[in-house]
UniProtKB/TrEMBL annotation:
This is VPS10 domain-containing receptor SorCS3. Gene3D superfamilies: YVTN repeat-like/Quinoprotein amine dehydrogenase. Pfam families: PSII_BNR. The keyword Signal applies. It comes from the Bacteria.
């Protein structure tokens, strides 16, 4: 794979030294021995297509690697991405055949990462060719945004001011996107800064910020108080943010591409302590989302959700009718639309077809229950359709993960 780096902003000149070493590399030779990660990073074993097009019948046409998958993104039934950080290098892979084989589209190893990356926070894709990756600020250096328009064959860079930490990123098309960044004011408060791009991320313009003074709000309407749970926009200037503040979920909406924000009512009756997770979009609808919410009670944790079909202008609070013990592992939850959803239990998967009012246990899978014993934490659960879904599991005591796939709506699962 040949990587080409083109620094377009003066703000990234300080990175030139570390990037020049990885600006260009000749296509890798066909690998004859399976490269294996260090033992403490082993996880999924996946089949990687080599960077060179092999001749027909070449015994080295494919090779396998082991890597710890930290997150994934599904585009449709056959296309998706997985990634993880190993020895401070981002390992990013793409599949076009439902996970049978993968292409390595990782950026240069000279761009170092410290933390695992989450979709919607550090990574965003609009399709199989256009993607963006955030390298958070390190040692007072700038926050770097890597972008590709050719499916990872080449990557360009831009930057945000040093000291700012990105908490959310989203693109609505290959040219238009937003980044929410923050700087710490004290232990509880963060100044929030919203950036907007209309040229695919080559340049960024600050369009709103909170006051930078705790207990006050700026004219933008964004509060300094609270931490960002997530952000989403549609293609019609509308968007929302979810903020966790004082054991409550606070929602703010915008109708002018993020320039000004107003609070939105989100009454959650019977929930004295609530915490929002990152918003999830519904497939095929740029204005419909749901936010998973944890409601902490003395008796345990109750699961609910906030649903919108107008990009956050109005919200409907729905109890999912499911609870767990207070100290139990938080399950993966997802909805394909406002009616059809899934949740992972300690023994398998449940499905709803009525928006969470009733749930049906899906039986028949012999693989999933046994894997849940070894990998009890459900990192992420997503469905591309009513039949095809991916589930990422993780062990709590080491650095191992496992990615599974279903093609029958969650009844049966196999390891990818």
């Amino acid at each position: 794979m040949k990587l080409r780096w083109r620094a377009l902003l003066g703000g990234v000149l300080l990175l030139t030294g570390i990037l020049l070493a990885g600006c260009s590399s000749e296509p890798a030779e066909t690998v004859t021995k399976p490269p294996v990660e260090e033992p403490d990073d082993q996880g999924q074993t996946i089949t990687i297509n080599p960077p060179l097009t092999p001749k027909v019948g070449d015994p080295n046409a494919k090779y396998v690697v082991q890597t710890r998958i930290a997150d994934f993104h599904l585009i449709d039934n056959t296309k998706g991405f997985v990634w993880g950080v190993t020895r401070n290098e981002l390992r990013l892979y793409y599949t076009h055949d439902g996970g049978n084989t993968w292409n390595n589209i990782s950026p240069s190893e000279n761009v170092q990462f410290q933390d695992k990356l989450g979709y919607g926070k550090d990574i965003s894709f609009t399709d199989s060719r256009h993607g963006w990756v955030v390298r958070q600020n390190l040692d007072k250096t700038a926050t770097v945004i890597l972008r590709t328009a050719d499916g990872g064959q080449s990557w360009d860079i831009s930057a945000l001011p040093s000291g700012e930490h990105v908490s959310a990123i989203q693109y609505v098309n290959p040219s238009t996107g937003w980044i929410m960044a923050s700087t710490n004011l004290n232990e509880q408060d963060q100044q929030k800064l919203l950036y907007h791009t209309t040229d695919g991320g080559a340049t960024w313009k600050k369009v709103a910020q909170s006051s930078g003074m705790s207990s006050n709000e700026s004219s933008s309407g964004l509060p300094d108080q609270g931490s960002m749970a997530g952000m989403s926009f549609d293609g019609n200037k509308q968007g929302f943010v979810a903020i966790n503040l004082d054991s409550k979920v606070k929602l703010y909406k915008t109708s002018n591409q993020g320039k000004t924000w107003t609070p939105v009512a989100s009454k959650m009756q019977g929930c004295p302590q609530a915490e929002a997770e990152a918003p999830q979009s519904f497939k095929g609808n740029s204005s419909s989302y749901w936010i998973p919410v944890l409601c902490y009670l003395d008796s345990g944790t109750k699961y609910s959700g906030l649903f919108t079909d107008d990009a956050g202008m109005q919200w409907n609070n729905v109890s999912l009718g499911l609870t767990s013990k207070r100290n139990s592992v938080i399950p993966g939850r997802t909805f394909l639309n406002d009616k059809e959803g899934w949740i992972v239990t300690p023994t398998g998967v449940k499905r709803t077809m009525d928006g969470g009012k009733t749930w049906t246990t899906l039986t028949g899978s012999k693989v999933l229950p046994s894997k849940l014993e070894d990998y009890p934490r459900s990192v992420k659960l997503r469905f591309a359709s009513s039949t095809v879904g991916w589930l990422l599991l993780e062990r709590l005591d080491d650095k191992k993960s496992l990615l599974l796939k279903t093609t029958d709506g969650g009844a049966n699962w196999r390891i990818l």
